[in-house]
Amino acid sequence: YLNKRKTSISIYDLDQWADSTAPKALADVFEALVGAIFLDFGNCLATVWRVIEPLLRKYIDQSIIHPNLNPIRSFSEHGGKLIKESIDKGGDTQMAVCIVQMPNGSLFEGRDVNKKLAKANACRKAMKQHQHNENMFQQTG
After folding, report:
1. 82-85, Cβ contacts within 8 angstroms, sequence gap of 24 or more
2. Per-residue confidence band for 2, with pLDDT thresholds at 50, 70 and 90
3. What is the DSSP letter of 87?
4. 95-101 sheet: strands from edge to edge
5. Do both 76 and 136 map to the same domain?
6. Count of domains in the chain?
7. What residues form DSSP beta bridges with 97?
8. Given this model, what pLDDT does residue 17 score?
9. Residue 76 and residue 123 in one domain
C-alpha cells in the first residue's frame, strides 16, 4: 500500500498518513487479529485490550488531546491562505503540489496524488509548525 503512495516525504513522518484510509484488506487483517485474540483467550475482552491497547495508546492519547480536526479548516481558522495549487508532471507519475502561507509569512508545501490531499498535507505542516511555535512561546513566557 505504501509503495503506491510515492511522495518525497519520509514514510516515517506519520502525519502525512493521518487522513489517508487504509485498504480494506488491512482493516480485515486487524479485525482478524483482534478476533483471534478474543477467541484464543476464551472471549476475554480484557485480554484483547491488554494486547491491543499498547499498540494504539499513542494514537488514542493524541486523539483526546488534539481531536482530529480537519487540517484545512484549522489552517483557515488561523488566518492561513492558499498561495498556489499545481500539478507536477515530472517523471513517471504526476504529483499535485500545494503551497500555503501562514499570517506570519511562512510558506509550506504539500505534495500528494491529488490536489485535495496535497492541500491537506501543506495545511497540516503549517499547523504543526504553528503548534510548535505556540509551545515554544509558552515555555519561554
Report:
1. 82/119, 83/107, 85/115, 85/118, 85/119
2. very low
3. E
4. 81-88, 95-101, 107-112
5. yes
6. 2
7. 86, 111
8. 55
9. yes
Q: Report the distance separating Cα 135 and Cα 17, nearest Å.
A: 23
Residue type at position 38 = F
Same domain, 55 and 82: no
Per DSSP, the three-state class of 75 is helix
88 and 48 both lie in a single domain: no
Q: What span, in angstroms and rounded, lies between the C-alpha atoms of 60 and 115?
A: 29
Q: Which three cell numbers stand for residue 117?
A: 490531499
CA–CA separation, 97 vs 93, rounded Å? 13
4: its cell numbers: 503506491
> Which residues lie closer than 8 Å to 99 by C-beta, 6 or more apart?
82, 83, 84, 85, 107, 108, 109, 110, 122
Supply the range of the domain harboring residue 59.
19-65
Residue 11, domain member (yes or no): no
How do residues 39-51 score in pLDDT, each as one tens digit? 999 999 999 999 9
Got the DSSP string for 20-72? ----HHHHHHHHHHHHHHHHHTTS-HHHHHHHHHHHHHHHHHHHHHS----HH
- pTM for this structure? 0.55
